[in-house]
Design a protein that fits this description.
The structure is a single chain. This protein has about 160 residues and is of the alpha+beta class. Helix content is about 35%, strand content about 35%. It has five helices and eight strands; from the N terminus they run βββααβββαβαβα. Strand 1 and strand 2 form a beta hairpin. The longest helix is centred in the C-terminal third of the chain and has 13 residues. It is globular.
């Protein structure tokens, strides 16, 4: 397993489909995962430190875990089958729960939990960005700094 960091979310054009981009810590591979607009908003909120007036689903899950005294120790992106990514939530007591990567990432950002990707997943779906394209990644980071959750066209109650 290789540790990953969340670069951010963006909307892929012209399909208007959000993606979350992860980068291998200490490596040169990026892992793009297409996600839904609700999950994109949840991830963007967490990255920007937005605290909604009422807890969103991922905030509620974090609060329930805290209330029950359960510690989430790691998120693992474990598989890619027929274009679908699979993740697991790993708890301190050894329990593992299957999850969508987008939900797992949104929860990880709220709890400070590290994210890991299986070598096989990174081999299959990881993208190496050569040094000369690093400025493109920097532009992407600048884009992420300027985008707001409202740009994803979803609102929460």
């Amino acid at each position: 397993m290789n540790e990953l960091e969340v670069v951010g979310v963006r909307v892929e054009m012209p399909s208007n489909q959000p993606i979350v981009l992860l980068k291998e810590t200490g490596g040169d591979r990026y892992l793009p995962i297409w996600i839904g607009p609700v999950e994109a908003t949840a991830i963007a909120f967490a990255q920007q430190g937005v605290v909604p007036a009422r807890p969103l689903t991922h905030d509620l899950f974090r609060d329930v875990l805290e209330a029950l005294g359960h510690e989430l120790t790691r998120i693992r992106i474990v598989d890619l089958r027929e274009g679908v990514f699979y993740a697991e939530l790993v708890f301190a007591n050894g329990t593992e729960v299957s999850a969508r990567p987008s939900d797992a990432i949104a929860l990880a950002l709220r709890t400070g939990t590290p994210i890991f990707g299986a070598e096989a997943v990174l081999d299959e779906a990881g993208i190496v960005i050569p040094d000369e394209q690093e400025d493109e990644v920097e532009k992407f980071r600048e884009f992420l700094d300027q985008i707001s959750p409202e740009d994803f066209g979803t609102t929460s109650q």
